[in-house]
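TICKET: design request
STATUS: open
ATTACHED STRUCTURE:
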């Protein structure tokens, strides 16, 4: 029994593999269309998204990602940020598109549907700050941390000075999935030694 606990502990302590990387300058501009956000593929590990916002209500970066069954999102770290004076908007909802037009929401300074949001800034980037706990404190996520499997849409916006950002999204297997993987690894190791 101690052997299984050791295997489980070792597998949980293993470093996460690199996930996907999306860089606007290389991979193309992220969508401005709230009905058709850019679809990104996140894999287990640390998935990096980097982009630039020119400033103004109409310059948006919108993308979706899916967490497969057995995966959770445990962190969203701000790893780099420049410009944007007081910070740029980072907002997120469940689903594959935003439920309302973000340009109108920015102009009217209101969003009719629940959407989690925070300002990202150079201060947060200086400490690789995890914004996920701040996003989930109210609707629509209501303290769901980590975020479970499902579809999510992200909206980044800067109405003032131009800004650049880089964010790390950490995707990991759920503990039960990780435990099954650990058990399978232990059985394979035991069979190999027999």
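STATUS: resolved
RESOLUTION: sequence designed for all positions
ATTACHED SEQUENCE:
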């Amino acid at each position: 029994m101690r052997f299984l606990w050791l295997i489980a502990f070792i597998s949980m302590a293993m470093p996460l593999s690199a996930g996907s990387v999306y860089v606007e300058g290389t991979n193309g501009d992220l969508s401005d269309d709230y009905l058709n956000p850019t679809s990104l593929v996140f894999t287990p590990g640390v998935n990096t998204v980097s982009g630039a916002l020119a400033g103004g209500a109409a310059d948006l970066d919108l993308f979706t990602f899916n967490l497969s069954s057995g995966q959770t999102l445990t962190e969203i770290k701000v790893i780099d940020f420049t410009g944007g004076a007081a910070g740029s908007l980072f907002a997120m909802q469940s689903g594959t598109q935003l439920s309302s037009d973000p340009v109108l929401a920015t102009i009217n300074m209101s969003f009719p549907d629940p959407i989690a949001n925070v300002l990202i800034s150079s201060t947060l980037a200086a400490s690789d700050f995890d914004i996920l706990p701040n996003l989930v404190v109210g609707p629509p996520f209501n303290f769901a941390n980590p975020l479970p499997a499902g579809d999510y849409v992200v909206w980044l916006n800067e109405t003032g000075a131009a800004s650049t950002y880089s964010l790390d999204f950490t995707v990991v297997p759920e503990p039960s999935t990780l435990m099954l993987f650990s058990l399978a690894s232990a059985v394979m190791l035991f069979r190999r030694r027999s």
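CLOSING REMARK: The first strand starts at residue 18 and ends at 23. Residues 1-15, 176-183 have pLDDT under 50 and may be disordered.
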